[in-house]
Amino acid sequence: MGKRKAPKVIKKGKRKRKPKKSSERWKKYKIEGNIAKPTAKFCPRCGRGVFLAESKNRWFCGRCHYTEFKSKEEREKEQTKEKEKKVKK
Ligand SMILES: [Zn+2]
User: How close is the Cα of 3 to the center of ligand 1, in Å?
Assistant: First the structure.
């Protein structure tokens, strides 16, 4: 007798929702005294107020899809930073 494959069960209805990440804009500001200083890059096309999302080797604007690639120097800087963090831990 051949083995019969069980029919695939397709679940309908409830789907697990992925928790949406908030933009966490507040994290991109450093508060010094009463002044909030932005620590992230702004989009050159959209102007102030629109931050670029940072990924490993580039910045990305979620609004106009502007992408800026990081230079080697910047990447190396970050790598050394990460190394320092690891040493501290
Ligand atoms: Zn933009």
Answer: 57
